[in-house]
Amino acid sequence: MQLAAIIVSLLLTVVGVALISRAIAQIVQHVRLGQPVPAGSRTDRWKQRSLTLAREFVGHTRMNRWGIVGVAHWFVAVGFLTLGLTIVNAYGQLFQADWIIPWIGTWPPYEVYIEFIALFTTLGILTLMGIRLLSLPSRAGRKSRFTGSKLGQAYFVEYVILIIGLAVLLLRGLEGAIHHVDGYEASYWVSYPLVAAFRDLDVSTLQNLIYLTAMIKLGATMIWAITVGLNTNMGVAWHRFLAFPNIWFKRNASGAVSLGALQPMTSGGKPIDWEDPGEDDVFGVSQVEQFSWKGLLDFSTCTECGRCQSQCPAWNTGKPLSPKLLIMSLRDHAHAKAPYLLAGGGKTMEGEERASEEQLKDVPAAALAEAERPLIGTAEENGVIDPDVLWSCTTCGACVEQCPVDIEHIDHIVDMRRYQVMIESSFPSEAGTMLKNLEKKGNPWGLAKKKRLEWTKEVDFEVPVVGEDVEDLTEVDYLYWVGCAGALEDRAKKTTKAFAELLNIAGVKFAIMGGDEKCTGDSPRRLGNEPLFQQLGAENVAMLNMAFGEDDEDESTKKPKSAKKIIATCPHCFNTIANEYPQLGGEYEVIHHTQLLQHLVDEGRLVPVTPVEALITYHDPCYLGRHNKIYTPPREIIAKVPGIRSEEMHRHKERGFCCGAGGARMWMEERIGKRVNNERVDEALSLDPDIISTACPFCLVMLTDSVNGKKNDGQAKESVQVVDVAQLLLDSVKTPTDPEPPAATADAPEPEPAPAAG
Ligand code: SF4
Ligand code: SF4
């Protein structure tokens, strides 16, 4: 038995170690095929990065949001890292059955720990196996987060861990027996029943059982190493190694998720100079090797856990996009194409092969075939990512928020969109109207700039305009950035007027930019039209800097950010001005209107007195919540309104469900699956609310469209209202004797193209 155990274990070890070493080298090579990143952007603040990594791993901070799964995974992950010494012990036991690691092997705390972690690793993996089996795609279909994951690989990994966990415990029992442990000891607190069971066996039997169990343990470990070594794209196994660098290199050293701002476009690791782009600059991504090395590391790290998929509004409404499947497709493609790229292969912008025949002569045919696949293309074109997948994303951030290994899905999606829009001019044609309107008129509806001021004539107080009623912004407390929807869209204008009236009641001095305001560029940027974003952003930043009384050419006149206060009612404007305009030289202190309103209520400058007897549910706008972590102020305002009863939808805060308008989806038809706004409104209506409240003009429009459609179909009661929290607060702040504000004009525009409800 001993000889067989030694031969089998050592043979498997030699093959396993060789293959896994080769695979590590291959993965490093694969990742290095990616483009460089701007200097320091992924390596700054290394101490902070290390702390973030330690916190995320030790605290399992991302996984623990998933309750028992997080706890079970913690034990499995810690067990994987710390059971290494039991492997050393097993090798020793192959040669001498009663061998124990010198020093530490008989140290009671070590033995207690090994028993503990072996038990809980085993229980942990059993829990994870049970959870997977309870949510099999064959039972739950699309609702299963494992749909599309490589289940065979997952079962393999799980069973190997189970075998190893059980083998460690069994070996402990045999060790106790062969070392004559004849009474309960803390060092055997878990395995003591096994010790007692084996105690009466003769020494030879015990030795053979130890050889056999050590071989099973080492054999399972090495079969795992061989399998993993032969499959560099086996994310369910490789994430155990790759998650560590992937988290360390994440966008924000502080540990914040990669949401909020989109990253500036780079080519060859350098930001593109939009005033004078280089001749060789690459715009966006059309080949997998054009992603940065961090992108390629992201793809390889995906565990296929499907948390992103389970939260994705596109996937949940029957669209072909699943962030998990997207990342898996990119990973499998990158790994399959890698031999071709490593041999020097690659295509010029004109599609010509760079490498000579000689260079490619040893490249496997499968890799050459993979290299011919278009990155974006339909199934008929053998594309890696279908255009319907690419254009289904609302950039809601649910995937990024949930990913336990910090994959940055949105940045990759937008990078692919950028190439499609800027080089191929290939995007849903409906969005072209929005782009043209932005180019010509600076707003998505293509309306004249004077229309931006019409709402000010519909309120019964003066709204100062910078350059007309006030010289510059030093005369007021805040600049109110109204936004295109807030100024031009009928339903959103109600929020604008309500908010302005609240400011007026509270005595807050504010001014607006009026006709000079332009679209911030959120939609074109997320569609992939970076030059248009750059143009709109540069114009807005120049105008804002001038309004704040600073010469943007002269560093000495620059004011601190805190002296330049902007309030926005639109979370998309908020996000762009606060998080993206610094990329363009615009540094402002930006607050959302719900933050200011909460402050004014807390200070007693706004007093909600009139009861609103209603059941309300609040919808978190993605760009306010997930992208900017503002969850409390709207809820605090609602809580201050007398009479109101509030109930949360199942999906709220970090797990809030998108309305369907983000990522420029507002301007595209939704042809596949259920409409996202209908899915959200169905969830809201399941609570039978009187009011659905939100804090974003785009959410307001999407939810209102859906509610109106459902009212027409008799699926919603006529009395259900969709309102911004500002409108709700105004209703309560005003006493019944206050005059009603004038009604909105009838000729205000509808979105074009209007997202059809139904
Ligand atoms: S950002 Fe939202 S819509 Fe886009 S892939 Fe992620 S979860 Fe899905
Ligand atoms: S949440 Fe992250 S690790 Fe899990 S499947 Fe999605 S991308 Fe992969």
Strand order of the largest sheet: 4-3-5-6
**Based on helices, strands and strand pairing, what is the structural class?**
mainly alpha
Number of strands: 10
Outline the biggest β-sheet. Answer: 4 strands, parallel
Task: Give the DSSP E fraction (strand runs of 2 or more residues).
Answer: under 5%
Radius of gyration: 30 Å
Number of domains: 4
Distance between the termini: 71 Å
| Helical content band | 40-55%
Number of helices: 30
List low-pLDDT spans: 743-758
The outline comes out as globular
Bound molecules: iron/sulfur cluster
The averaged pLDDT comes out at 94
What does this structure look like?
- This protein has 758 residues and is mainly alpha-helical.
- The chain folds into four domains: 2-32 and 63-230; 233-272 and 281-349 and 361-426, no CATH class; 440-600, no CATH class; 606-733, Rossmann fold, CATH 3.40.50.
- Helix content is 49%, strand content 4%.
- The chain has helices spanning 2-32, 46-58, 68-82, 84-95, 108-134, 137-140, 151-178, 192-198, 203-230, 235-248, 293-301, 307-311, 313-316, 323-342, 357-360, 365-371, 387-390, 398-402, 409-422, 430-441, 484-488, 490-506, 522-527, 530-547, 571-580, 593-602, 632-640, 676-685, 697-712, 725-733; strands spanning 266-267, 270-271, 478-481, 510-511, 565-568, 589-592, 615-618, 645-646, 691-694, 721-724.
- Strands 4-3-5-6 form a four-stranded parallel β-sheet.
- The chain starts with a helix and ends in a 25-residue tail after the last helix.
- Residues 743-758 have low confidence and may be disordered.
- One iron/sulfur cluster (SF4) is lined by residues 311-314, 321, 323, 393-399, 409-410.
- Residues 311-314, 321, 323, 393-399, 409-410 line the site of one iron/sulfur cluster.
